Structure formats: C-alpha cells, structure tokens
Amino acid sequence: MIRLTTPLGDEVLDLRAGDRVLLSGTIYTARDEAHLKIREKGFPFDPKGAVIYHCGPVIDEAQNKVVAAGPTTSARMNNLTKFMLDAGIRGLIGKGGMSAKVREELRGRAVYFAFTGGCAALAASCMELAGCHYSELGMAEGIWEIILTDLPVVVGIDAHGGDLFER
Amino acid sequence: MDPLYNRLASAVEEAIHQAETILPPDVEEALHTAYNKETNPTARGEFENIFANLQIAREKNIPICQDTGILVIYLTIPETVPLTTKLYDAVSEGIRRATKSVPLRPNAVHPLTRKNSGDNTGAGIPAVHILPGDTLQVTVFPKGAGSENMSQIRMMLPSEISKIPEFVTSVVKDAGSRPCPPIVVGVGIGGTFDSAASFAKEALLSPINSMTSFEQEICDSINQLGIGVMGLGGDTTCLAVKVKEGACHTASLPVAVNIQCWCSRRGVVEVKL
C-alpha cells in the first residue's frame, strides 16, 4: 500500500492503474455546480497540487462534522475537468471512472483515484471538516475543505493512459 | 394524531433507520460469498472497503451511503385498519421524522423546477403500496438514484421469450460502473407497462440467497461481462437476479429491469394494533 499526502507533486507520475493508495491531507469536494462556479469565479483555494473529490456529503453543520461522504458519479464532470487540470490539480477522487478525453487530459500530470461507491461511513471516518467555500451552493453542491487521514483508494486512471475502467 | 397512526409513523421512522444503517443478512452474506470467490486483487480491495463501511455504519449508527434514496413503502393492513388518507399521512410523517433523526439527505425535488421539499416527501411520493394482511406491517425500501437511473423497460414480442436474458444482460452492460456494482437485478415479466415495473421492484424485496435456474442463467450471463465491483473489473458484477412474473395480454411481453446497487437496503417493522 502506497501512502501519499496532499498537495501532490511529481510522485503521481510513479503511480500505475491498480495501485492501492492511502491518501491523507487536504482535499476539496466539488460536483457539477462547484465546477461551473470555479470556472466562472476562480478557485477559492490554491489549485497547485490539490485534489478534488467528486462528492456531495451529508454534513452536520451544528457539530461541524462530516456524517456521510461517499463518491458521486465522476462521468458527469467529464467536460468540466480540463480547466481544473490546467490550473494545477494533480488528483481527482470519484466513482465509475471518466471519459477517454479525460484520460488523455490526465496524461503526464495527474491521476484519477477510485473510491468505493456507497462507502459513505468509511469515508466520513477518515475525515475532519476544515471549511466551506461557495457555501451558497448548498450542502451537496458547495465546496467542502476536508482533511483526510488514510482514505483507501485505488488508482483508476494513471498519468500514462492506464485505465482500469476501459474494457 | 390518533395513537394508532402515531405508532405507524414511529414504525415507518424505525424501519427507515434500520434500512439505512444495517444491511439485511442475506445481502451481507451474498457480498461475503462473492468476496470469497473473487480473484481480482482490485475487486478484493473494494469488497474490503464495503465490509469496513458496513461495520462503521452499524457501530456509529449512521447511514451506509450518503444517497439515502427515495423511500418506497409497502404496507400490509388487516381488516380492522380502515384504508383512509390518515394512513398515508402517517407514513409521510414517519419519513419527515426520519429525515431529521437518522439523518437522511433531503432528496425529493419537484421534477421540473427541481425545488427541494427538504423533508423527502412531495406530490405523489412516497409511493405507498398496500396489500391486505394479518398484521399491520411496514416495509421500507430506500432506492438510490445511481442504480434507479440505469433501469429500463421494453415491450417485447411474445415470440421473443428466449431473448429475455439477452435484454436483461444488455441493460446491465449499458449501465457499466454507474449503478455501483455488484448489483442485484429485479426483473418484472408480464402484466402491463406499469405493472411490469412494479413486479421488477417487488422482486428486489425478496431474499437474494436463492435463485431459480432461470435467474441463475441470467446472473451467470451478467457476470461474464467482467464489469466487476465498482466497474474496476473482476468476477462478480451481479450478486443475484430476482424475477417476478404476472399474467399478460396474449399479444404482449412487457419486461422491466430494475437495478439495485450493492447496498440493497430494506427495513421491516410490525405495528402493534
């Protein structure tokens, strides 16, 4: 098992599809609306080496806690990913994989991590809530800044065209 | 609220809580059986995440998945309980209570304006299916969107009976990684356009630890696809196929395929009369 901590750098180039990784450090949730907002208004965080999580969590705002936070279907973000990678994002986390176009966009610079769909309780147990950006987008669509400790992911698409979802 | 309806609302809340936090034993057993047979290392890792997740949800009393679904309700009512709107109101009240107490993600929106009701109820939902019975019993079936969206219905020809397995397999192939495999597949055969879909959903309510030879044949055909756990490849794409049939018009053969993610949740609670 490989251990990685965000922000990520050129170590992502060493990863190969199928590698199991324990991921730690700060990540940012973003679904459709957050992608559109960032494209329009810019990043509310430093995108260099950052990791995006395709997720609409259940948050207990009274206790400032992540209750449940499994991945959403990444394919919805197929056409919203290139500008993220161009800005320096080095990792995506989601479920179900992404298009051949994204596979090419990842080449030489970033990877796609698959996290098990439905595993919302396991994800939440690895998470500490650090903040919220663009909170006007609401609970599911806002950008939640989360500190991970050892989230068990697998490299679904590597930076060299390797893709476990391709068949 | 009348005490009986208050007890019904509480039973709905309890059945939702049970369904959202603890997987039925037959489903957990099917996942373990698939894990024990799995030869793909990536798929084995995904199964391990699923088992860890189930344990955490149970211990911490939190939802297994953040998509807590649209709630489909099945009720049996004895002769002594009249079928009135109070019955439906009590079910909706139970859902509103569970939305706060479990908690559930508010998932119910207007279909066109997409405005969220905030409490998982709305016009026409929950769907409440009522059958006569000896006891007042609630069955809650939370249905997530990832798998529900991949479901299909086809009005096949009576001459195409032998093509049913091929159709069901093609629906699963089209769905690919999106419905969170390993899936359970409910197949409704016969009836009319609408009842075939109801049969498919009802088929998903039966325990998945046994299959007929017809169900096994379709399941084996699906597992040849190699989609695997979460679409990452592997031996098991489908945990079980369940079929429910009904008589149909001599000129018809409706076939509905309702897909269910690995998190095949259901909760059953009996209400004291």
Description:
The complex is a heterodimer of chains A (167) and B (273). With 167 residues, chain A is an alpha/beta fold. Chain A has helices spanning 32-41, 82-86, 100-106, 120-125, and strands spanning 2-5, 20-29, 51-53, 58-60, 65-68, 91-94, 111-114, 127-133, 143-157. In chain A, the strands form 2 sheets. In chain A, strands 2-3-6-7-9 form a 5-stranded mixed β-barrel. Chain B folds into 2 domains: 3-22 and 64-143; 146-260. Chain B has a 4-stranded mixed β-sheet with strand order 2-1-3-8. In chain B, strands 4-7-5-6 form a 4-stranded mixed β-sheet. The radius of gyration of chain B is 19 Å and the shape is globular. Chain B starts with a helix and ends with a strand. The relative contact order of chain B is 0.21. The mean pLDDT of chain B is 96. The chains are: A alpha/beta (167), B alpha/beta (273). The interface between A and B is large, with 35 and 37 residues.
Secondary-structure blueprint:
The complex is a heterodimer of chains A (167) and B (273).
Chain A: E1 2-5, E2 20-29, H1 32-41, E3 51-53, E4 58-60, E5 65-68, H2 82-86, E6 91-94, H3 100-106, E7 111-114, H4 120-125, E8 127-133, E9 143-157
Parallel strand pairs in A: 1-2, 2-3, 3-6, 6-7
Antiparallel strand pairs in A: 2-9, 4-5, 7-9, 8-9
Chain B: H1 3-21, H2 25-37, H3 41-60, E1 70-77, H4 85-101, E2 128-132, E3 136-143, H5 145-148, E4 152-156, H6 164-175, E5 183-190, H7 193-203, H8 213-223, E6 238-246, E7 253-260, E8 267-271
Parallel strand pairs in B: 1-2, 5-6
Antiparallel strand pairs in B: 1-3, 3-8, 4-7, 5-7
Helix pairs in contact in B: 1-4, 6-8
